[in-house]
């Protein structure tokens, strides 16, 4: 049975361009997301609801989001990809494994973000994308706000959500061969 209270929270989350992940961080621990569980328990109902409203309802075993047109990337999606690429380049330049931002016990720190900011191409890319010149603000406003990165508040560090991991997983084969 659909929960009207959770349905309203889901609607507000999805309509504001956010992703609903299988897990969230609560008190610095990964826990099951009740909104994701609500969707999975009533998947066909939610899928039909959003498709009847003209949205493409995209889901995996790890996340859910909606889009109006799956083929055309939005401005926010482009900005998110730029930020993720800059983070990936920083990790690579400093010989960090991608595991650094995949696991709760490590994460992307404020110091790492300053390192991303200091890379020569960062400011130019941010400015060309219309994002200003503060990487930390953009990471918070785009990646954290939309649940692409999850914030561990006690240490102000960030880890990839499932959809953030998917971004890097899709890039991986491009560099293998």
Structural topology:
Blueprint (H helix, E strand, L loop, with lengths): L3 H12 L4 E2 L1 E4 L2 E4 L1 H8 L1 H10 L3 E4 L3 E5 L7 H19 L16 H9 L3 H7 L6 H10 L4 E4 L4 E4 L1 H15 L1
Antiparallel strand pairs: 1-5, 2-3, 4-5, 6-7
Helix pairs in contact: 1-2, 4-5, 4-7
CATH architecture of the largest domain: Orthogonal Bundle
CATH topology of the largest domain: Arc Repressor Mutant, subunit A
* Radius of gyration of CA atoms, rounded to a whole number: 17 Å
Could you say how many structural domains there are in total? 2
User: Beta fraction of the residues?
Assistant: 15-25%
Largest sheet: 3 strands, antiparallel
What number is the mean pLDDT?
92
Number of extended strands: 7
State the low-pLDDT regions, or none: none
How many helices? The count is 8
Side-by-side strand order of the widest sheet: 1-5-4
Kindly name the structural category.
Answer: alpha+beta
Tell me, what's the shape? globular
How many angstroms separate the termini?
A: 48 Å
CATH class of the largest domain reads Mainly Alpha
Provide the succession of SSEs.
HEEEHHEEHHHHEEH
Query: Into which percent range does the helicity of residues fall?
Result: 40-55%
């Amino acid at each position: 049975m659909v929960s009207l209270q959770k349905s309203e929270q889901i609607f507000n989350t999805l309509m504001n361009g956010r992703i609903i992940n299988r897990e969230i961080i609560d008190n610095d621990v990964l826990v099951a997301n009740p909104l994701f569980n609500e969707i999975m328990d009533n998947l066909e109902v939610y899928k039909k609801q959003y498709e009847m409203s003209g949205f493409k309802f995209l889901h995996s075993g790890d996340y859910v989001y909606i889009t109006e047109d799956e083929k055309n990337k939005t401005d926010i999606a482009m900005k998110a990809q730029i930020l993720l690429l800059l983070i990936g380049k920083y990790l690579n330049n400093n010989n960090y494994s991608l595991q650094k931002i995949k696991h709760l016990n490590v994460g992307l720190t404020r110091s790492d973000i300053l390192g991303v900011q200091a890379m020569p191409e960062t400011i130019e890319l941010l400015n060309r994308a219309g994002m200003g010149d503060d990487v930390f603000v953009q990471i918070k406003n785009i990646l954290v706000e939309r649940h692409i990165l999850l914030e561990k508040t006690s240490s102000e560090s960030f880890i990839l959500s499932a959809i953030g991991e998917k971004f890097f997983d899709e890039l991986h084969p491009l560099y293998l061969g």
